[in-house]
Amino acid sequence: MHMDAPVAASTAAPTAATSPSIAGASAEPTKASLVGALRELEAAKGRVERDARAACDAMKKSLVLEILPVLDNLDRTIAAAEQNRDAPAVLQGTHLVRAQLETVLLGYGVERIDATGKRFDPALHDAVTQVAVRNPLTHHHVIDQLEPGYRFAGALLRPAKVVVGRYD
After folding, report:
1. What's the predicted TM-score (pTM) here?
2. Which residues lie below 8 Å from residue 134, measured CB to CB, with a gap of 6+?
3. Are 17 and 23 in contact (CB under 8 A)?
4. Rounded Cα distance, 124 and 104, in Å
5. Domains along the chain?
6. Which ranges of 3-141 does DSSP label H, i.e. alpha helix?
7. Residue range 143-155, pLDDT digits in tens
């Protein structure tokens, strides 16, 4: 075969004259196709933004769950120091650190659930034990809170660990 031979008609690129599907197609996109493509792009952008927010919220939640035991330990330290009347300056400093940590958590959308005196709610409270009470009005109420509960972004992050009153 000679190199200068013309290309066969069967291997030539299709043209409007040789291809009926190309003959009817317009080289310009239609307004409807552009609007459809724009809608698809906006929907994809929305999905990416939702996924990014969900990933960010999951990271925040994970971090908060790791920090809450630190806050609990600060509360225990403060309670023990107040009970023993230990080092007032250290106690005051611990109060300040605890308040600073709680302010940071509030800034991230963490809300503390204080349960003492409230009616027991299994959706918010984890009953560790029950104690007998003499007053029927305190039946099924939180008598003591062992650990506070927390909400994050409106959802329960950790239930409060509580002691519930039982009137017999």
Report:
1. 0.66
2. 167
3. yes
4. 23
5. 32-108 (no CATH), 112-168 (2.30.22.10)
6. 20-24, 31-84, 88-107
7. 999 999 999 988 9
